[in-house]
Design goal:
The chain is mainly alpha-helical. It has one domain. It has two helices and no strands.
């Protein structure tokens, strides 16, 4: 049946099929990433909450640790 379709029509159908496959793969990847992103955001939030409770000495130690000293 493909033989009776013009080449452009065949190409459009092929490209639409490829696009659907890529879109499904993308959406599946997003479904796996979303929980991890949420966990990362929770960790960032917890770190920010802890950071405001640091003493000046602890702040300096944090800065030193981040700078690699």
């Amino acid at each position: 049946m493909d033989e009776s379709r013009p080449n452009k029509v065949q190409k459009i159908l092929h490209l639409e099929g490829k696009a659907a496959t890529w879109r499904a793969e993308y959406e599946a990847t997003l479904a796996r990433i979303a929980p991890v992103k949420h966990k990362a955001q929770q960790c960032d939030q917890e770190a920010k909450a802890l950071k405001v409770t640091l003493t000046p000495y602890e702040v300096s130690q944090l800065r030193r640790a981040r700078s690699g000293v």
